[in-house]
Amino acid sequence: MIPELLVQLPLPLAANAVTDGIGVVLQWDTLLYIGLGMLVGMLVGAFPGVTATMAVALASGFTLTMDPIQGLAVLLTIYVAAQFGDRVPAILINTPGTPASIATTFDGYPLAKQGKAGLAMTASAFGSAFGMIIGIIVLSLFAIPLAGLARQFGPPELFALVVFGLTMMIGVSSGRIFKGLVAGAFGLLLATVGRDPITGDQRFTLGILELNGGVPFIPVIIGLFGVAEVLNQMVTHRRNAIQDKPISQLGQWLPDREMFRRLVKPMGIGAGTGSVVGLVPAVGGDIAGIISWDNAKRFSRRKEEFGKGSIEGLTAADTSSTATLGGSVTTTMALGVPGDSVMAVLIGSMMIWGIQPGPALFTNDPSLVYTLAAILLVATVLSLGLSLIRMKSMVKLLELKNQYLWIIILVFCMVGTYSISNSVFDVFVMLIMGLIGLFMLRFGFPAGPAVLGLILGPLAESNLRRTLIGDGWAGFFTSPIALVLFAISAAALLLPPLRQMRLRRKHALKGKDEGLSVLIP
Predict the structure, then answer these.
(1) What integer pLDDT is reported at residue 5 of this predicted model?
(2) How far apart are CA 190 and CA 326, in angstroms?
(3) Cβ–Cβ contacts within 10 Å for residue 299, how many?
(4) Are 389 and 42 spatial neighbours (Cβ–Cβ below 8 Å)?
(5) DSSP letter string over 346-361?
(6) Is there a contact between 449 and 166 (Cβ–Cβ < 8 Å)?
(7) pLDDT computed for residue 281 by the predictor
(8) Rounded to an integer, what distance in angstroms lies between the CA atom of residue 90 and that of residue 103?
(9) At what angle do helices 257-278 and 285-299 cross, to 10 degrees?
(10) pLDDT at position 7, please?
(11) I need a surface site. Which of 60, 66, 123, 326 has the fewest CB within 10 A?
(12) Of 172, 125, 281, 191, which is closest to residue 464 (Cα–Cα)?
C-alpha cells in the first residue's frame, strides 16, 4: 500500500493512478518500443565513445512523431539499457562505454585480466539492476510530494530553482568552473533568440524566418553531443594506432552462493549513495560511482583488492551509478531541472511533444509517475536478462573499426534532424553546432551547461522579469526558499576553486618544508 502522506492523494485516486500508469505500459505497442529501445541502448553502451546522451539525442529526432508515451518508452529504455551495455567495454578493454562506467574500469578490467570477465559482467549486471530498482522506488515515492512542494513556488522561487540547476551542472564540470560558466552563458544567449517571452516582439533573429520560434532544441543537442563527438574522434584518431583487443576469455559466468553473499553489502552501499546523489541536479552516475567505490573500500575487509580486481568495488560502483537514474528522473519531471545531460535532452523532446516538465506535471497527471516507473522497471528486467546471456557477439562488435561507426552516426544525425520538421535549416543548425561543439570539446568547455541554458533560459528570463515587474529585487530577498537556493548555488560555484586554492597552498607549504629539511642537516 502506498502511504497517503507520501503521494498526497486519497487512497482510491492513488490506486487508480497506479493502475492507469502501469496499464499504459503493458500495451503491446509500448512493450514493442521498449524492446527496440533496449536493443539500441545495449549496442550504444557497448561502443566506446557513443554516449547515452548522444544516443538519446539522436533517437529524439525519430521519436517526435510518436505518441509521447511511446517516445518516452524508447528514450528512457535507451538510457537504461546503455547503463548495462557500457559495462562491457569497461570490463573487456578498460574503456568506459559511457561516463557512468568510469568507476567500472577500476576493478572490472583487472578482474578480466585474471580470467574473471564473465563473473565481473554478471556481478555488474545484478548490481546495475538492483540500483535501478532502488532508483525506481525513489521515483515512485518522492516524485509527487516533490512536485506538490514545488507547485507552491512563485516567480522568485522558480528563477532561483533554474539558477540552482544551472550552477549545479557548472559546479560539477570536472573542475572547469569558468569554462562551465562560459558554456552556460552561451546557452542562455541562444535562448534569447526568437520572441520576447513578455512582449512577444522578435529579437536577434537576423531576419531569418526560421528563428522566429527560437533556436530549435533538438538540432542543437544532436550537434553538440552527436556530431561534435564524432568530429572530435576523427580529429584525434591516429591512423596507425593499434586498437586494443577485447579480452575474449570470459571464464566463470555465474557467482556461487558465497560470492552472492559478498555482493550484498556493496550493493547496499551503492544503492544508498546513488539514491541520494541522484536527487541532486546535474550530479550524474559517474560521480556517484566513484563516491560509492570509495565508500565500499572504506567499509570492506578486503581493502587491498580494490583497484586490483575487487568484485565488491565493481558491484558498489555499478549499483550506485544506476541508482542515480530514479532521482534524476524525479528532479527532471517534478522540478523541470534536468538531473543530468540525458535528462536535458529528454526535456527538449518533451517540450516539442507539448509536455512541460515541472511542478504541475505530476500534480495534474499523477499516473504519469507510475507510467515512467513501469517503463523503467520493464526496461531494467529486459536489460538484465540480456546481460546475463553469454554475449560472445559483443566481443566481436568491440573490434569494429571506428571509421564505420562514424559514418553510421553522421548519417543518422542528419536523417534524424531533417525528419523533425523536414527542414534543411535544422540540418544546417546541427552542423554549425557540431563545429561549435568540436571547439568546446577541444578546449575543455562542457556541453551540458550550454544545453541546459538553452532549455531553461526562457523559464529563467520570464520569471526574473515577472519578479522585477511585481516586487522588484525585494521579491528575491523576501523569499526564504529563493535565498536558500541562491546560497547553495553560490556554494556550488565558490567552494571547488577555494578547495583547489587550499590544496595548492598546502602542497606549496609542504614543498617549502621539504626544501628546508634538505638544507638543514
Answers:
(1) 37
(2) 30
(3) 13
(4) no
(5) HHHHHHHHT---SHHH
(6) yes
(7) 66
(8) 9
(9) 130
(10) 42
(11) 66
(12) 191
Q: Which residues pair with 202 in a beta bridge?
A: 195
Neighbours of 156 (CB within 10 A): 27
Cα torsion 315, 86, 433, 417 to 10°: value is -130
What is the rounded CA–CA span in Å between residue 409 and residue 486?
40
Is the pLDDT at 45 greater than 90? The verdict is: no
d(CA 162, CA 117): 43
Which class for 389: exposed (0-12), middle (13-18), buried (19 or more C-beta within 10 A)? Answer: exposed
Q: Of all helices (H) and strands (E), which one includes residue 235?
A: helix 228-236
Q: Give the pLDDT score at 513.
A: 54
Q: Give the mean model confidence (pLDDT) for residues 144-165.
A: 81
Question: Among 42, 89, 92, which residue's Cα sits nearest to residue 251?
Answer: 92
All 3 cell numbers of residue 179? 569554462
429, 373, 322: which is closest to 69 by C-alpha? 373
Please say if the pLDDT value at position 358 is more than 70.
yes
Question: Does pLDDT of 435 surpass 90?
Answer: yes
CA-derived radius of gyration, the chain:
23
What residues contact 107, with CB distance under 8 A and at least 6 apart?
Answer: 120, 293, 305, 306, 307, 308, 309, 310, 311, 313, 314, 317
| Whether pLDDT at 177 is above 80 | no
Task: Determine whether 517 is exposed, middle or buried from the number of CB atoms within 10 Å of its CB (0-12, 13-18, 19+).
Answer: exposed
Which long-range contacts (C-beta less than 8 Å, at least 24 apart) are formed by 340-343?
340/282, 340/283, 340/284, 340/285, 340/448, 341/53, 341/225, 341/284, 341/447, 341/448, 341/451, 342/52, 342/53, 342/56, 342/79
Residue closest to 329 by CA, chosen among 77, 17, 96: 77
Q: What are phi and psi of 337, to 5 degrees?
A: -110, 115
DSSP code per residue over 251-311: ---S--HHHHHHHHHHHHHHHHHHHHHHTSTT--HHHHHHHHHHHHHHH-S-GGGTTTS-H
Write the DSSP string, 423-463. -HHHHHHHHHHHHHHHHHHHTT--HHHHHHHHHHHHHHHHH
The pLDDT of residue 239 is above 80: no
In this predicted structure, what is the pLDDT of residue 321? 87
Secondary element (H or E) of residue 406: helix 402-421
Quote the percentage of the chain above a pLDDT of 70: 84
pLDDT at residue 2 greater than cutoff 60: no
Residues 311-316: what's their mean pLDDT? 88
Long-range CB contact pairs, 385-388, < 8 A, 24+: 386/38, 386/42, 386/81, 386/84, 387/42, 387/84, 387/85, 387/87, 387/121, 387/122, 387/124, 387/125, 387/128, 388/122, 388/125
Torsion of Cα atoms, 234 then 174 then 87 then 261, to 10°: 170
